[in-house]
Specification:
74% helix; 247 residues
Amino acid sequence: MNWRSRPLDSVRLGRDQLFWLVAGLILLVYALVVLDTLQFVITLVGLLLAVTVHECAHAWSADRLGDPTGRNQGRVSLNPLVHLDPLGSIMMVVTALTGMGIGWGKPVPVATYRLRYGPYVGHGLVSLAGPVANLLLGGVFALVTRVVGPAGWLYAALTILAWVNIIIAFFNLLPIPPLDGFGVLIGLVSLLGGRTAAPTLRALMGLERYGSLILVGLLILPQVFGRSLLGPLIGAPSMWLLARLLG
């Protein structure tokens, strides 16, 4: 990169951050004025906690498996600021506003060649760590509701926090790139061995370039045809698990 382009890049980055900040403030004001403020705030807090724990779990598990890249970048942390992505954060606000959508944090960089158990199985374990962390956190919130009792705003808040984490866990377990479930699937296929594993892995790797399109299609098509494609895969098991945990 030519050194002369760096100041321009810095200015553009600053403008992008300013844009997302202004957009976020507009959405926040809209939420506080028009919507149920308490439910919006609790949902947004749930998303923030879920993303933070999710990305921290990725960094922690990668470090434990031999790759300190995430730790060296300060990602083994429960500080939300080190995990937030500007656009992903805005989408979290939109999700809290509408009840639909998707938010995300900054992906944790992983040098898969350093991982114990190899780049496929090792990366599969790192991928699995994020959804498992969300399930554990959701389970803690849900179990605390049993102590609080089924009444009052605290019970409702804890239920929302549990629900958000469980939904995010099941969503990320979908075997679609770039979701964690795809990394888990790659790890499982690599364990097959023999003549089956190699061509199957090549075919799956070929889907990576279309992963985002497939994911967007799954989110948009239900709005077109009026029938949820993800409901049976995410909503139903999430509701079942939440009901079991809430008792």
